[in-house]
Amino acid sequence: MQRIKIALTKGRTEEQVVPLLEQAGINCEGIRHKGRRLIFDEDPRYEIILVKGPDVLTYLNNGSVQIGIVGSDILSEQENFQYAMLDLDVGKCRFVLASTKDFNPQVHRRKIIATKYPNITKRYFQGIGEDVEIIKIEGSVELAPLIGLADAIVDIVETGNTLKENNLQIFAKLQQVNTKVVVNRLALRQYQPQIKELIANLQTTNQQVVQKKSTKE
Amino acid sequence: MRWNHDFKASSKTEYQFSGTFFIEMEVTMMKNKNLPSGTRDEFGSEAEIKETIENKLFKTFRQRGFRKLTTPVLEYSDVFQPLNAENYRSYQLLDDQGESLVLRPDLTLPVARVMSTTGIELPVKWYYGGDVFRVKKQLSGGYNQLTQAGIEIVGYKGIKADWECLEIALTGCQKMAIDDVTIELSHAKFVDTLIDQLALPKPTKDSIKTALFEKNLSKYDQLLRPLEKTAFGHFLSEWPWLFGSFDEVMTALETLPEVEVLQPIINDLQATKQFIKGLFPKVNVTLDLSIPSPQTYYTGMAFRGFTEKSAGYLFSGGRYDDLLTNFQNVKTAAVGVAFDVDALVERTPVSPSQPKTLVFFDTDQWDEAEKALKTIPNSTLCLTSSLDAAKKLAAGTNSRLIDLTESR
């Protein structure tokens, strides 16, 4: 049988997902001790490549990999059309609208919003019937309202600590973010048995993790 | 041949040609050396293979009594209004009246426009070929100009018309020496007909349908929980996986309580599978009963072909009796199939080019040169002024040189 190629988002997603993959019976020894390697073929059934989040869909859409594991923030920002088949119980966080405490969301003028996610921001404000000026920045988005670049920001928060430390507060909660298993539409047909097996294993693993969490609580 | 551009701070560019010599020239901001994102030039073998493939397909269509229909590249954007805009973003421009025009993103709807406005008598069989334009994400490596070749059979209601499309699709692949085709059958009405049977409020039905189509298993499983214990429970839990081997999908259908309205759909699919297996025993026939209709105007069977190696579909088609309803009130039976010519080109190996023969001659030997050209295979006129230049060219291009001036 032909190997399935999986593009895994490197960094935090990789750290959170590798234990799940291992629990689902995939050999991730190579990733555990990766050094500078980017391709891992320790498991005879899978070839895992590590790429940056926004590149996962580029590889997937091109058919270069069959499966991608990536945050729903990126899928949503890039307007994904492949099959987002499974939510993994890791990397949960949320988009919020945040600013300094003197920000008035009701003020009658065209607000300036800084974000790394212009499409999500645009869709949110369109949804509430408001037109805003969006400024795209690449990192440390919290700075924007503090320095006077923007009235508010749209960004992802997990614990809210970064916001607090920068004296910012949440004004609206937007969509939730989690990690998803995405499958190329044609690949699902070309590699149906293998992908079904992988998805079923991950589903079981994921349920076990959820159950464990709920019994702890 | 590869040109490497190295933009330097000095606003000068070095062009490297075959790695041997350099020319320096001023960089201007003009875009006269760039292609718009998503486009490409085709030359040499690639362009020739494409032409050969198109001609083979056109010949097949014509031999079966299809007539050619050519529509313009530019159309009013309203023509394509039935298309799912998410899949087909088009290039837009305005005409001199301020009307919105598009570069056609599809070749089937223009056929419908022709049929509804010209009063052509039915039934009719058309074939067409040409480029469609679909704007893909910038810098994603996708091409925006795609070549298609296909047929439309208009005015025949029965399954025979569907089968002629399948016959043509599979014969086409055979002629391209593609012998590992998988053909996937589906039906535009299956999902809706089945969902109608469920005792659920409409919004829930719609959510189930969306989750099913997106294969969003996490959401689908959640929506299904209240139905687990019903007669449909077992079938529904397997529904997102209801594709693949024809016989296995049909077996899975047996777990479904009897739904009379589904029977004609199932019968058509069964008969079609028998038809394909009878004529093309090597073709792998699969079935997908979990996907949406390819476009809103599809009304019956749909099908697409792929191989294990291909990154996209080789052909796709189906029955769309609602196709013309965007243009007129009367329904007209229509079924068609289109090949993705670029996908066929990609699959065709480039055969190593044969060494050429150069025919060198004096200007007053033109007749003789023409005769040589006709008799020597793979030859071309050598248009250099001197024999020395001809020899150099032959050596440089690894060609044989025939010198007609020698015998003078």
UniProtKB/TrEMBL annotation, chain A:
Predominant cellular place of this UniProt entry's protein: cytoplasm
One term of GO molecular function: ATP binding
Record keyword RNA-binding present: no
Pathways per UniProt: Amino-acid biosynthesis; L-histidine biosynthesis; L-histidine from 5-phospho-alpha-D-ribose 1-diphosphate: step 1/9
Pfam families: HisG (PF01634)
Keyword terms of this UniProt record: Amino-acid biosynthesis, ATP-binding, Cytoplasm, Glycosyltransferase, Histidine biosynthesis, Nucleotide-binding, Transferase
Coiled-coil ranges (or none): none
CDD domains xref list: PBP2_HisGs
EC number annotated for this UniProt entry: 2.4.2.17
Family matches, as InterPro entries: ATP_PRibTrfase_cat (IPR013820), ATP_PRibTrfase_CS (IPR018198), ATP_PRibTrfase_HisG (IPR001348), ATP_PRibTrfase_HisG_short (IPR024893)
GO CC annotations on file: cytoplasm
Catalytic activity: 1-(5-phospho-beta-D-ribosyl)-ATP + diphosphate = 5-phospho-alpha-D-ribose 1-diphosphate + ATP
Complexes and interactors: Heteromultimer composed of HisG and HisZ subunits.
UniProt function note: Catalyzes the condensation of ATP and 5-phosphoribose 1-diphosphate to form N'-(5'-phosphoribosyl)-ATP (PR-ATP). Has a crucial role in the pathway because the rate of histidine biosynthesis seems to be controlled primarily by regulation of HisG enzymatic activity.
Family: Belongs to the ATP phosphoribosyltransferase family. Short subfamily.
HAMAP family documented for this protein: HisG_Short
Protein name (record): ATP phosphoribosyltransferase
Organism expressing this protein natively: Lentilactobacillus kefiri DSM 20587 = JCM 5818
